[in-house]
Amino acid sequence: MTDPLSTAQLYLDGITVSFDGFKALNALSLVIEPGELRTIIGPNGAGKTTMMDVITGKTRPDSGTAMFEGRHDLTRLDEPTIANLGIGRKFQKPTVFENLTVEENLELALKDDRRIRHTLFRRLDEEQEAKLERVLAQVGLMRRRTELAGLLSHGQKQWLEIGMLLVHDPRLILLDEPVAGMTDAETAATADLITRLARDRTIVVVEHDMVFVRSLGAKVTVLHEGSVLAEGSIDAVQNHPRVIEVYLGR
Amino acid sequence: MRLIRALVILGLLLVPLMGRAANLPDAELAKLVTGLAGDGFDDKIAAIDALGTSGDARAVAILKALTDGKLAASDDKQMLIEGAGGKFTDAVTGAPVTPGAEPERIHVNNRLRGLIDGALSRLTLYSADPGDRLSAATEALHHPSLGAVPSLDKALATEQDKGVAAALKLARAAGLLQSPDAAVRLAAVDELAASTDSEVRGLLGELVGGHESDPKVIAAAKTALAKIERQLAYIEIGINLFQGLSLGSVLLLAAMGLAVTFGVMGVINMAHGEMIMLGAYTTFVVQEIFRAFLPAGLFDLYLVVSVPAAFLVAGAVGVALERTIIRFLYGRPLETLLATWGISLMLQQLVRSIFGAPNKEVANPSWMTGGFQILGGFTVTWNRLVIIAFGFVVLGALVLVLRRTNLGLHMRAVTQNRKMAAIMGIPTDKVDALTFGLGSGIAGMAGVALSQIGNVSPNLGTIYIIDSFMVVVFGGVGSLVGTLAGAMGLGVVNKFLEPFAGAVLGKILVLVAIIIFIQFRPRGLFALKGRSVEA
Amino acid sequence: MMRRTPLLTGSGWLVFLAAMLVAAVLIPVLATLPPPDSMFRLPAYLVPLFGKYLCYAILALALDLIWGYAGILSLGHGAFFALGGYAMGMYLMRQIGTRGVYGDPILPDFMVFLNWRELPFAWWGFHNFAYAAFMALAVPGALAALFGWFAFRSRVTGVYLSIITQAMTYALLLAFFRNDMGFGGNNGLTDFKEILGYEVQAPSTRLGLYVITAVALGLSFLVCRFVVTTRFGRLLLALRDAESRVRFIGYSTTGAKLFVFVLSALLCGLAGALYVPQVGIINPSEFQPGNSIEVAIWVAVGGRGTLVGAILGALVVNFVKTWLTGAAPELWLFALGALFIVVTLAMPNGILGLVAQAKQWRRTPTAPVAETVHD
């Protein structure tokens, strides 16, 4: 048996975060294996977003361990450093840079030297150009590449944001409600894209939409009041008595 | 000191003297006065001394006339005082006299003048006004002499006022330090140890520094000195604290309105200082109206009227600005900052055009002038005290409005979730306007307070705007407790820094400290935490 | 292929060169060649006045770079400008030599007046032009670096940053008013005689300074333009619109902001150093918070996030100011105040925005900011 601390893609143990006495996360522990696709569900206020904040360095936990690939202590690093380690995050509300064009958005997100000198003087090489084109095609925004991102539809912004994740080549992707506000067709296409992406990456999806969660067919973790309530296949979780109680009320 | 003495004497001459100590019989006084015309200086000295200790109120006018060269003797040795227009009166009875021959003026030299000054100040010890007696006693302390002890004793015997009596005792003890008897000196040192006067500290320091030969007295003086130093240090702290609270209350008043407009509404109002300025000018106008149209007896009430007037004027201007300009800029703080800066320029220029650029004087009402002494050197002035109290009253009222009224409830609802508040039927537009009006009105009331401690000028507000923002940011935006703590903290720190660093450098240090502080707690002392803040 | 943004388009270069020709060649020619009574002759007093406007234009450019592009509204840019000015003023003071009222070869008059015996440490080396010029950039740059590092790393943003930069310039205002700071106190530095051996007051020197300022403005524009057309420029826009998002894609926002803040402060220092010999005085009033805010309104009037607009705004507002303070001084503050309000309410993209609306401008790599939602 190997030590999950050193082998897991992401290892959270005993993470506690409190805001003015309210415990947003309460000794949360979670292990994500390399290459795994995991969905996380939970009622509002269960701590899903705070968990992502901790993983990406936005929020410092009061206590607990957060390790990435057994080497990087996420509780000590800031957001840019964590992003450059290979952890990408898509927000619940699509946040693209509205005053930049689609391709400029992607160019900024491209995996590359992030130092100022480089951003001032270096241009894209052919390989990077090719990658950009590929992703543009992948997220279906090829024809709108020179338009301002602010002019895209809601769904297209979501896709652009996913595209920005892809050009950054993260090893772990965190998706916060990726299908919120999408049409059924868009939702299905997104589920398809995520399953494809999951082949060579680790992905954690936070979602409310149970149909979507089911269509991903992945292991499900249920959060409640800042800690893990249940874990398992979607069917096992849906029949779990505590989960039913929490979701349906007493 | 000379000035004070001159003022004391002047006061004594103007006020009809009602001596506290019994006056001498006319004949006795006449005998003393005649001595002034004596041939030798020794006679004159003795006469001056005797007049000084006589406690007779008439002696003051006589000695004064002597120094001015207005005292003369007629051929038959009747002592006369020359009044205005060369008219003579009898020095003792005050009856008009027409001398036959030209009376002979009595000359004094510098040495005599010094003696006369001393005698005059001793006479003041019997003045009817306790204030005069106190300054005379203080004067005696500052120029201690063994010779003055008898008259101090005499004054002490009849003195009723505790403060004056204490000062007299000190002056007496200071005089006794010159006694040849070491035991007397020792007792004097013990008595002086109760003082907190820096003059006493100087006297004792001289003793320790070599003026004293008796080791017992030196030891006692050292102990006394240490005690005085300690007490002076406490007093210094007390003074700094009071002045700090006073400055803090001014900052609190200036910042409280901002705590509403910036803290509650999130509007960066750079014209906030001008709301203060409008309040101060309202006070000025109300004062002028009282002066012009109402009986003088009511004048003291003008300030009471000014408070609501300033609130209404500044509040109305605030509502007007919110409705015409600021409401179009919600959610664009940097633009709001610029637009309100423009408003502030225009308001300043408007007031300058109406009232002129020079400062306007606003008088303290009589119930706010003067002060009272708590300990030696620690005087609390009424205007400062009233402003401190006023600051807390306004804070209390604001808390009540926010916590206990419908307007306060609506305000909080609108700032927390505008859409939801609108859906629930809260008239958000009206609430915005009223909230902004409330903040501006409070600034106007701050202007009333500021008019009482400084000049009123068109750029009054610019002095306070940066400080006000510092207070709100330092205390934590959106927290009234923070605003209170911020204002008082900054006020007190400022005043404690001043003695070491000077006023300007102290202020710079405070600004730098806040800038550094914000680095570590960007959201202030009493910051709200949690997800809503991050959004 | 990714469409690259050129430094300037073909027509852009034409306009740029034409403007440079007018500013750096035509005006000097008009000030010297036509006979003095000719209607084409530019009066001599206008040369330093135009020079002053161009200095203000550099200052506006500096503010536009950080406000228009990176969304940082600094209300302390007047301080960087003044520091650059003081550095140059100190050089000019040292050049007075024995021609001062007291004739002291080393000490400036105000120090002799204060009974100082020797030159304070801060003044060492300022007799050397190269050192003074270096300090005119280094001091504002260092202050910006220090201040910015503290502010940006603890994520002081938006109006909070504006307010503490305002407090910074206010603190400096108070400090420079003090005599014992050693910078001339209330009166500041003035009575300059010569710069690099040339009479400061001489028309030829003024013309020279003017031309140098015009060239400096042109170069500053190109530098800013270069910065905003690179990937770094897009990073700035991204920062302005969604700062936290920029961090999550792996950029150190502290570093990026610090870089552009310091660059901007350097430009201010340059502008201040060019300003002082042309106006002949530098005093603490340059630190007035109001001055810094006024720069923001120049930029807003011209059009934020366009660079050209900043220059345009600085020139237009200052022309009007000169004219109005002469014609009806009591109206100027009303006009300026009204300008603040009108620009923010009615023309958020400034003059260039109005032009763009009128012409249905095709997309240029400018940064329209009007409808940006601040969070």
Q: How does this model look, in words?
A:
With 250 residues, chain A is α/β, with parallel strands linked by helices. Chain A has helices at 4-7, 48-55, 79-85, 102-109, 116-121, 126-138, 154-167, 184-197, 210-216, 234-238, 241-248, and strands at residues 10-19, 22-32, 37-41, 63-68, 72-73, 87-90, 172-176, 202-206, 219-224, 227-232. In chain A, the strands form 2 sheets. In chain A, strands 6-7-8-3-9-10 form a 6-stranded mixed β-sheet, sandwiched between helices. In chain B, 69% of the residues lie in helices and 4% in strands. Chain B contains 22 helices and 7 strands. Chain B has helices at residues 2-14, 26-36, 41-54, 58-67, 110-124, 130-142, 149-158, 162-176, 182-192, 198-211, 215-264, 272-293, 302-324, 333-355, 382-404, 406-416, 418-423, 428-451, 460-475, 480-501, 503-520, 531-534; strands at residues 71-73, 79-82, 88-90, 96-97, 104-105, 371-375, 378-381. In chain B, strands 4-3-2-1-5 form a 5-stranded antiparallel β-sheet. Chain B has a two-stranded antiparallel sheet with strand order 6-7. Mean pLDDT of chain B is 82; it is low at 10-21 and 529-535. In chain C, the strands form 2 sheets. A two-stranded antiparallel ribbon of chain C has the order 1-4. Chain C has a two-stranded antiparallel sheet with strand order 2-3. In chain C, 50% of the residues are buried. Chain C has helices at residues 10-32, 46-69, 77-96, 109-113, 129-153, 158-177, 203-229, 231-241, 243-248, 253-279, 289-302, 308-327, 329-346, 350-359; strands at residues 189-190, 194-195, 198-199, 281-282. Chain C has a domain at 46-288. The model of chain C is unreliable at 368-375 (pLDDT under 50). In chain C, a hairpin with a 2-residue loop joins strand 2 (194-195) and strand 3. Chains in contact: A-B, A-C, B-C. At the B-C interface, helix 14, helix 19 and helix 21 of B face helix 5, helix 6, helix 11 and helix 13 of C.
Overall pLDDT score of chain B: 82
Low-confidence stretches of chain A: none
Number of helices of chain A: 11
The Cα radius of gyration of chain A reads 19 Å
Instruction: Record the strand order, biggest sheet of chain B.
Output: 4-3-2-1-5
Strand content of chain A: 15-25%
- Radius of gyration of chain B, taken over Cα atoms and rounded to an integer in Å: 32 Å
Number of DSSP E strands of chain B:
7
| Assembly status | heterotrimer
